[in-house]
Write a structure and sequence with these properties.
The complex is a heterotrimer of chains A (566), B (306) and C (333). Chain A has 566 residues and is α+β, with helices and mostly antiparallel strands. Chain B is mainly α. Helices cover 66% and strands 0% of the residues of chain B. Chain C folds into two domains: 54 residues, no CATH class; 233 residues, MetI-like fold, CATH 1.10.3720. The chains are: A alpha+beta (566), B mainly alpha (306), C mainly alpha (333).
Chain lengths: 566, 306, 333
Amino acid sequence: MKKALFLSIAAGTVLTFTACGDNGDTNNTETDNNAAETDNNAAETNNNEAGNEDGEEAAQPAEDQTLIYARGGDSVSLDYASVTDGESSRVTQQIYESLLSFDEDSFEIGPGLAEDWEVEDDGLRYVFQLREGVTFHDGTEFNAEAVKLNFERWADPDHEYHFADEGYAYSVYGTQFGGFEGDDGHVIEEINVLDDHEVEFVLNETLGSFIQNMGMSYFAMTSPAAFEEYGSAINENPVGTGPFQFVSWSKDDSIVLEKYEDYWQEDLPKLDQVIFQVIPDNSARLTSLRSGEIDIMDGLNPDDIDALEGEEGIQMFERATNNIGYLGFNEDKEPFDDPEVRRALNHAIDKEGLISLLYAGMAEPAKNLIPPDYLGYNDDIDPYEYDPELAEQMLDDAGHAGLEIDLWTMPVARPYMPDPERAAEVMQANFADIGVTANIVSMEWATYLEQTEAGEHDLFMLGWSGVNGDPDYFFGNLLHSDAIPGGNRNFYRSDEVDSLLDQAKTSIDEDERVELYEEAQEIIHEDAPMIPLVHSIPVLAGSENVQNYVPHPQTSEPLTEVEISE
Amino acid sequence: MEPTSPSKNSPFPGPEHQEPQTSVPAAASPWKEAFRQLVKNKLAIVGMIIIGFFILIAIFAPLLTTYTYQSMSAADRLQPPSSTHWFGTDDLGRDIFTRIVYGARISLMVGFFAVIGALVFGSLLGIIAGYFGRWIDMIISRIFDIMLAFPSILLAIAIVAILGPSLQNALIAIAIINIPIFGRLVRSKVISIREEEYILAAKAQGMKSGRILFHHVLPNSTAPIIVQATLGFGTAILEAAALGFLGLGAQPPTPEWGRMLSDSRQYIQSAPWTVLFPGLSIMLVVLGFNMIGDGLRDALDPKMKS
Amino acid sequence: MLAYTIRRLLMLVPVLIGMSLITFSIIHLIPGNPAQTILGEQATPQAIAQLEEQLGLNEPYLIQYFDYVGGLLQGDLGQSLRTNADISREIWPFLAATIELTIFAMVFAVIVGVNAGIVSAWKQNSLFDYTAMLIALIGVSMPIFWLGLMQQWIFAQELGWLPAFGRSNPRDPVETVTNFYLIDTLLSGRPDQFWNSFRHLVLPGLALGTIPMAIIARMTRSSMLEVLRSDYIRTVEAKGIHQMTVVYRHGFKNAVIPVLTVVGLQTGTLLGGAILTETIFSWPGIGRYVFDAIGNRDYPVIQSGILVIATMFVFINLIVDLLYSYIDPRIKY
């Protein structure tokens, strides 16, 4: 594990001045827990108290440890593996845990329900030592059988808890492990229970992201007894090992969770109750925060940041970026088969202008496909500077001055692109500056996806969001020639890049993967199959009384350490 | 949107007093008399002034402003009303006055074409149903019943969900949901006229159905249609704004008033002018049409005079 | 009366069949492959194939329609694509929220509208009459989503008098039994929560009730004017009965039918129009349920939500029509 490679977005991203939890403190706690199960818990508690006393203002815990977390939309399902939306995992991360877990503010992997793990046979065999004394919320014990059952449930379409007939589909499992049982690319050959708290995964092919996958909230552990009891209604009756247990769900309104008293980490969680409240409207959400009706709100409108800055009782949090919005070329069409034309157009787009108009500054200009805190991000890439004159000159030299193009824009807002139509208009103006006429083309979303996959377009806008912090999820899906037809709507074909990506995907040596990805990014930058536009940065706001809240790039995070002060 | 008059009928043929109480006065030159009544009605005059004003600004929009409705400027975001930006600017730094003025074109156009569409198709179906009766009437009336069984805005939403959100599709949806309203009105008029002596006489003389329809039946149904159409303009504009507000109507950068409202609602606290002016514009135009419609109804229907 | 009721119920059959045809068609009329539409850009071909299978998109239309209607007759409204939950089970809390809001809005509209209408007619051409009718005229011209936004801004955000969103205080969730919060809070013996839920109803209720209020006021006034001018009232007045009593007791009795018509029509329309109010006030009602489903391309929910609202609308109108013949047996059909 190379920590240095993960740009740590720590407490420094908290925009305002508040007695936000001492970061070192929380790290210590985690280390204590990881180190040994038998570690003296009293010491841990002391450690926390000491931390608080050291703080400038000793934040006293409030009487009422209820946290209201307001968000724009409801969860789809509380069966995390069968859905992909962020609002579902926001809740299931509180109820469920995975074998491994990510660091609080990065994709750095660490122990979770498994205390330790070994990689054997050159990455073809993984053995996990499970934590002992962990119980599910229904009181049953967490053990190796539970791990086996959960994984087989996703992998095996004939498994009694696969629930295919009820409409359950485990798309993330399919993408991350190369398909399902019986598929050619499916990498998990078998899962063996070695003893009660030791489980072994045998792969038929190495997979570079295997360990990262184990930290994903999509692969958390559900109680086998709960499957038996609830069957396919498991999506409304979640039973996990996490810090909070499920109480009630009133759709499109609120989900109530309460502290799990027998949680395996002593003295955690600190909150007694967590309520996820749906308030679709941004301004109503902010009003509720100001009036104290809620404690944390997601999706702060960037325009409100100025007003909130310095406002009494409010703090803001930035989430590290985990996506890319891009403008892609269709290399199967002239003149976009000419790299010089693609490079010229790269110089034409004013990313900073785009960010100030459409993201109110809450985005980073992109130069690579993957977000900056990703493994293998090549920061040495020299971005194509915004330079209309150079762009016009280069286009002229390539013999395509006064080019007329179709600029395809998607009809729906996406996390990486809050207002695609407006973004297209801004870029249309950029192109006009270099004498290129861009006609904006928009159509129904499904048709858009189908037609771009079929290569009907010239230039198109699209984006991608990360799920496990692994670069292959971006590169493999968007720029590998195997993804034609599919996610590679640029029709970018480079044997060199393909082979680098293949090696990186199966390699389990992180240093090697970093080198391979860095090299691939250089070639990609030179070939310019797309104009990387932005990595958007989500902003949250919360009451000053919320302590130890650290946003994770994954769009949500466990609230285990969070506490309300007076 | 909610109907602005109770003439949107229940899905069923209800008791007679649901029908708009309109009929052509029997006196000689009824139209002249009606016009005399109308200009005496102060509210109707105010309504005509309001609508006339909006028509003028819609026509002369480019002369009234030095900005374009889509030009953005990061430096001018969310400016309050001032001498340079009369109604302030929105979150993309666009001049709201300019967008309102151009938006008048959109709203009036949607109202006009949606009502004309509904009027033409509704009248046609209503005449056919009323004149030919029997199974044709049966089928057309049932279709009207089914369409009216859906709350109008919901039906419009369903239609747009199918066609995809755009201004044009919103216009089509609004026209469709208004067809049965005109259809029923015309049908009931045709039925009452059909049995009148002069029609029976025309038939006896061997006049063709089409001729009878267009020369006798239609002209005698105009009064209630005019009243309903005038009120319908207001309803259609409200419906278009509602669809725009829900993101199912005009798409950016089109300066549609309803869409402007929903795009700006998150700035209501920090920049209330972004929400205030589009809403006021919608209300004024609809108010204008309702005032004229009320006046027309009073003028064309002696029974309602008070 | 019974024969009429039966006849009216039979007339509902073609209407209901037509409605089911329309809602059934929704999924087939959208352009593009519905499965791709629903799943979006990160979907695998397998997932698309699986969804097509689940939605039965590979069957002939006729078979799909009969499956659909067969399900409806057994109370099966299908499954939400998003949540995989049975819509028939999921829909109730939303429906209850909307019904509660609608009834509240309607009670407000009737009380204010009828009284304003009666007084306006009684004091015809007075200052009160002019003011009330001008307000009513503005009321029917009001975009309710704008009115709602303005109310929210002034009374919730600026003045802080009333809550800006939702049905209850998130810190103190209501224990649900019927999902009508005003009833549930009383059942659980929590007058404080009752008061709180009531406060949450005020802003959306007023916004939603404004247009029907204006229409009712106008209708009541005009029908009252007719009644007041009738010989019958003049006779009663001549007998020297106190004017106010006359107006209210005798006048309103005769004006009730047109008012009932408006009430019936508007209640039905409110069910659909609530979509706007619910969007503004984050009210977890059926309008938002359907609207969110449009955003999520959850077509079974769109279909069933629209069907449920339309069915309620149809039955409310049926009840109103039956009430006519009960209140006024002179009406012949």
